Request: fold
Amino acid sequence: MKSSPLGKNTSVEVLGLTPNGLWLLTQGEEYFLSYKEFPWFENAPVKAVFNVEKQGESGFCWPDLDVDLSLDGIKHPEKYPLKAKH
Reply:
């Protein structure tokens, strides 16, 4: 397994929840995930939403919710129109 280059931020963190979505911090950038585009988080337990793990170069996993997302999917949800029913 290769180590990440020095200075490259490889962590992920949910910064907070709002009535309309959640804020995610990764690679030094903040992203807003609206419940409209990412319905899996809307009625999820707070603890489960904050339990996010980095997967590979640009993937994220919420193991308690069985949700896996890519950074591209977060940046461009219109490219991935299938959504789970919530």
Summary: The longest strand covers residues 12-18. The domain at 12-79 is CATH 3.30.2020 (NE0471 N-terminal domain-like). The chain has one domain: 12-79.
